[in-house]
Amino acid sequence: MAEVTTTLNIAPVELERAKIASDALKGEVAVVTGGASNIGLGYARSIAAAGGCVVVADLNEEAGIEVQRVINAENDRDCALFVKTNITEPADIDNLKAQAYAKFGKVDILINNAMNMRLNGKILESPVSDLDMSYAISGRGVALAIKAFVPDMIERKHGTVTYSATQFHYAPPMVGGTIYCAGKAAATSVVMSLANELNEKGPVSEIGVRVFCLCPAGVMRFDMSKFPAPPPPAPGEEAPPAPKFDFAAFKMTTPEENGAAMVYCLERADQLHGSGVIHNDVFKQMGYPFHDVKPVEIPGQQAFHKMTDMELTMAFCYMGPGFGD
After folding, report:
1. Fold of 29-317
2. How far apart are CA 81 and CA 68, in angstroms?
3. Mean confidence (pLDDT) of the chain
4. What pLDDT digit, counting tens, does each position of 104-155 carry?
5. How far apart are CA 187 and CA 15, in angstroms?
6. 240 with 189: CB under 8 angstroms?
7. In 101-171, where do the E strands start and end?
8. DSSP for 259-307?
9. 3-state DSSP call for residue 205?
10. What's the rounded Cα separation, in Å, for the pair 84 and 139?
11. What is each CA distance from 253 to 97, 185, 211, 279, in whole angstroms?
12. d(Cα 270, Cα 106) in Å, to the nearest integer?
């Protein structure tokens, strides 16, 4: 993959380090909502690096146009398309589908990822309009995209639908306040319900459309150049060494690492249908180092694992320890 100079906050994709073939998704066309920044951008770049084509849907037109240029330049082929999209608007979703089909002729993969991280307050401190918008982006937007793209997948008996689920309820100190998590919970419910609706039509081997959730919690990259400079040393004293941000200590992963995890899951979507998986477990499964530290563990709970459709259905019941011992 060619290195490209850009204003985007990116690093090299991680497919080679993750031992994923450069043609793993050859012939596949993916739509990634919220694909112009952070984890959505990691998904989009990784899919293209794995041989696929990608349609980036985002409201940020300036970033989206640059993403299209960068992905095409990195892969030295016309494999990316940006479509400015408000996923809460049916007309925008219709336009997204029309442009995707005009460019690539089909859509095989739908990655629902868009969310407004500013809708991240606590319920007692936020206007109800924030909650309405959170539901509009997550629940309504996901439903509109599913209704636009999945019927054709069913007709062709080939397709994959996934959602960046993150967390279902506010749980300090994890990322995501009440408003953010409520929208995520709604969309996760929609996606898992879709999996069970498809199950009613027959086994995945016959229907050909796979549905799963990937939980990429704790994904970001800090731009240390934007942090304030340390104060100058006192006369006669040496300047302290430049601070280094330790991602491992904060259990953070990068968009590119999660892009590799997404490609790994897309290759194995048959195994994941009707379930959810947390990125730590994907890294373990693929033998990929999580910054050389052990996966995040919650005291009193087992290590993260692939959740079944029934566990995800009942996940909202697990709000605390219950009656205890």
Report:
1. Rossmann fold (3.40.50)
2. 6
3. 85
4. 999 999 999 999 988 989 999 999 999 999 999 999 999 999 999 999 999 9
5. 28
6. no
7. 109-112, 159-164
8. HHHHHHHHHTHHHHTTEEEEHHHHHHHTT--STTSPPP--TTSPPP-PB
9. helix
10. 19
11. 31, 22, 24, 9
12. 20
3-state secondary structure at position 307? strand
| Confidence category of residue 305, pLDDT binned at 50, 70, 90 | low
Residue 173, number of CB atoms within 10 A of its CB: 4
One-letter amino acid at 240 equals: P
Contact 259, 45 (CB under 8 A): yes
Tokens of 263: 């490609």
pTM: predicted TM-score of the whole model, two decimal places = 0.85
- In the chain, DSSP assigns E strands to 29-33, 53-58, 80-84, 109-112, 159-164, 209-215, 275-278
DSSP sequence for 214-245: EE--SB----GGGSPPPPPPPTTPPPPPPP--
Lowest-pLDDT choice from 242-256, 283-297, 309-323: 309-323
> Is the model more confident about 205 or about 117?
205
Is 39:277 a contact under the CB 8 Å cutoff?
no
Nearest Cα to Cα of residue 11 among 61, 46, 60: 46
pLDDT in tens, 4-26: 999 998 999 989 888 899 999 99
Instruction: Provide mean pLDDT across the span 24-40.
Output: 97
Tokens of 184: 């995520």
**Tokens at residue 19, please?**
């031992």
Choose among 62, 69, 17: nearest CA to 48: 69
* Residue matched to tokens 């050909």: 208
Residue 216 backbone phi and psi in degrees, to 5: -95, 60
